[in-house]
Amino acid sequence: MVHKLQRTRPLYREKLPLLEALAADLADRLVLFLFGSYSREEATPLSDLDLAYLPLEALDREAMEVLDQTLYRRLSRLLESDDFTLINLRQAPPTLAFTVLTEGRRLSPDDGGGEAAFRERVLALYPEARRLKQEALAAFVRRLRQPKGAAMAVNREKVLEQLRRLDADLRKLREKARLSEAAYLADSDAQDVVERRLQTATECCLNIGNHLIATLGLPIAEDYASVFQSLARGGILPPDVADVMADMARFRNLLVPIYWRVDPREVHRTLPHRIEVLETFLQAIVEYLGLDAPP
Q: Fewest C-beta in 10 Å: which of 163, 167, 252, 258?
């Protein structure tokens, strides 16, 4: 959640020790960071006060909202102003989280590594997120260079090739989904096939999404999950499909070797649902392209 109100901005340098005291008081619940011009000691009367916090636990939506509002009220009272930015790092794009973690100033006392897992995850995600943004910006530059009135066309052959690969992955996943839980858990090869095919199937969907974003001038995605939200804003995917595909993108990150090992029992349990999600995406793209049936 991001809070932002514009008013005449006071200089907050004298408040920084108070911010550190507040961060220490909340050290069992969150880590507080200062970033932007104040962390670089370049603040002027026109500068924003940029703050970010990392909840030490992954909370549900309601608990996260309560923590966000509690911190915001305490900061407002301490600063005697609500003219500041407050960002929840667990909800921030990887590129922004990377900036805060690498360039910001940690206001909280050391907690013995409570944020280490989150930091590791952001550092792993950042190269992919940065590449995604660079590709979208490069496509935007290409559109700017198009003659006036010209438009970049969707490369149907490229999209169809990704749909063909997605369809092949789905066939293999349907085959493995017929295994009983006991048979699946006893077959490490089947587990490897399912995890790999779920990863490559999701990557096919992401490749399609990135191509459509680039050629149609849709909002630039900050991370893989937001690729599908951008497609929804462009009217290509229904919002509910975009939401479940965003979850698939997050699940895909768990399958990449640098991430945590997934629970094979949970993978088997959710496999029929994930197959259905991928089939829904495939059909939505088929309909968008005006095709009669999947390739």
A: 258
> Is residue 121 assigned to a domain?
no
* Cβ contact 295:283 at 8 Å: no
In the numeric block, the tokens 């975009």 are attached to 242
Residue (of 72, 83, 95) closest to 22 by Cα position: 72
* CA distance to 25, 29, 36, 37, 62, per residue, from 59 (Å): 19, 11, 27, 30, 8
191 to 5, 99, 182: CA distances (angstroms) = 50, 36, 12
pLDDT category at 295 given cuts 50, 70, 90 is very low
Residue 261 φ/ψ, nearest 5 degrees: -70, 130
pLDDT, one tens digit per residue, over 54-109 is: 888 767 777 888 888 888 889 888 888 777 788 888 877 777 788 888 888 888 88
Beta-bridge mates of residue 98: none
Q: Give residue 211's domain range.
A: 129-289
DSSP secondary structure letter of residue 54: E
User: Is pTM beyond 0.70 here?
Assistant: no
Same domain, 103 and 133: no
- 3-state helix vs strand vs coil in the chain, percent to 5: 60, 5, 30
Nearest residue to 205 (alpha-carbon basis) of 174, 250, 172: 250
* Number of domains into which the chain is organized: 2
| Rounded average pLDDT over 154-181 | 93
For position 141, what pLDDT does the model report?
62
Boundary residue ending a domain (114, 138, 167): 114
